[in-house]
Every structure is written in C-alpha cells, then in structure tokens.
Automatic annotation (TrEMBL):
UniProt-listed Pfam families: VWA_2
Coiled coil: none
Gene3D superfamilies, per database record: von Willebrand factor, type A domain
Name under which the protein is recorded: VWA domain-containing protein
Species of origin: Micromonospora globbae
Taxonomy, superkingdom: Bacteria
InterPro entries: VWF_A, vWFA_dom_sf
Domain called VWFA: residue spans: 28-236
Length: 251
C-alpha cells in the first residue's frame, strides 16, 4: 500500500473530531509556505507558480482532511505564509492565537484560502512565529485540556533566501539556527525543509541540518505537497522522507 492510500476518502461528509475529549497524544504541525515575489514570476507548466500551488492545494487538502479521520486524527495544523503581506497565519481564524478556536485546526478540518504572492522573504520571522505558536499551544493543551502532546513538527517550503520585510538580505538565520539546535537538543521539535530551485541551500541546511533538508531539482508542486504529507505522518524519520525524495539514490 502506498503512503497516500492511507488517506483515501470513501465518505461523502467529513466527520469532525472532538479534540476536547480526545485522549490521544496531540501533535502540532506548523506548515510554513514561501509566498514571496518569485512565486508570482516563476513559471511551471505554463502557469505562475502561485497559481499552480493554489490548484494543487485544492487537490491536496481533501487528502489531509481524510487523513484527519484516521492516521492524522491527533494532528493540529497551523499554516503560516511569508511573502505577500509579510508573515501571515492563514489557518483557523487566521489570527496569532494558540487558544481553542485560534490559529490551530484539526487535520480533519484544515482549510487554506487561495494564496497571493509578492513581497520579500521574511523566513526567519515566520519560523520564529511558528516556534512561539506551537510552544504556546503545547502549554495550553497540557494545562487546559490535561492532554499529552508530542514534539512539534515544522515543515518549511521555500524557493528563496531570507530577507527582512523590506527585502534586504539578512543573516538573522544564523541566530535562528542556534535556537533551532537548542530545541532539537531537548527533542522538542523536528524541522523538515524542502527547497525548490532558487533557494539558498546553505541557509536551509543550517536551519534543518543536512539530514532534515531536502533540495528538489524542479518545481513540481504536486510532488512537493505529497512529500509534505509524508513528513506529517506519525513516526516518520528523515530517512523515510529522503527515500521518497531521492529513491535509491544517495544525494
């Protein structure tokens, strides 16, 4: 059975998951998507990259929601974009809130509105926001709902290099890389980073470590989102994702 067959949907209506009474270990996944100007100018299969991404998200989201009634039933997503409009939360009620009804949403109810591309690449700010939100959510769920939580998982997708909000190059990623290393040392977080042509490989390796960084040779957005789904599943490790990216080849 393929990885994605686990998420096939054979029901007509979604079944909501009541996370207030659920007794499983809650898992938090932050998906960070680069929506900078390059996504508005890069072409893939005759389409702007951002238009192709929106089309593929429409295909992908029902698969995630189906997984939310099975293998992803314990997963909550927060989706953050960085580029057009700066750093934005686009999941849940689209506010920077880790409380119930805020930015986090169960996989079974994940929605992502059509995304717009433009502006700079404030990647560092986006990752720092994700770290803050997942830590706040972890504390909230443990305190308010008295539930166990697993280590958060960050999935970073980018085709550029970090800038500030005005588009100026920044080396703030070096400070962020040190912070991420501290999180990994306490086994509180995994970072999977997917880089498409145009990305700064040095930065992505520094943030995700060489094991957690997966450079892609082309801008195949359908394959990219399928890889994101692999990285979201429980008990996945870097080698499993690497096998999906490179097959039997060793990069």
């Amino acid at each position: 059975m393929s990885t994605f067959a686990l998420f096939e949907d054979d029901t007509d209506e979604p079944v909501d998951v009541d996370f207030v009474t659920d007794t499983h270990r809650r898992r938090f996944v932050a998906l960070l998507i680069d929506t900078s100007q390059s996504m508005a100018t890069t072409q893939t299969n005759g389409m702007r990259a951002i238009d192709a991404l929106n089309r593929e998200l429409e295909r992908w989201l029902p698969t995630v929601r189906a997984g939310g009634r099975g293998p992803l039933r314990d997963v909550e997503f927060v989706v953050i974009t960085f580029g057009a409009t700066g750093v934005s939360v686009v999941s849940g009620n689209r506010t920077i809130s880790a409380e119930d009804g805020g930015a986090f949403v169960p996989a079974s109810r994940l929605e992502i509105p059509p995304l717009a591309a433009g502006g700079a690449t404030p990647m560092v700010e986006a990752v720092e926001l994700a770290l803050s939100l997942v830590e706040q959510r972890r504390q909230y769920v443990q305190t308010i709902h008295a539930q166990q939580t697993g280590g958060p998982r960050l999935i970073l997708v980018s085709d550029g290099e970090p800038t500030d909000r005005e588009g100026n190059p920044t080396d703030d990623w070096q400070r962020l890389a040190h912070r991420l290393e501290q999180w990994r040392a306490t086994r509180r977080m995994q970072l999977f980073a997917f880089g498409v042509p145009g990305v700064d490989d040095e930065v992505m390796r520094a943030l995700a470590t060489p094991n957690g960084y997966f450079p892609l040779e082309d801008l195949d957005l359908r394959r990219l989102l399928d890889l994101v789904l692999v990285a979201t599943t429980d008990h996945v490790d870097f080698e499993r994702v690497r096998s999906h990216v490179f097959g039997d080849e060793i990069p």
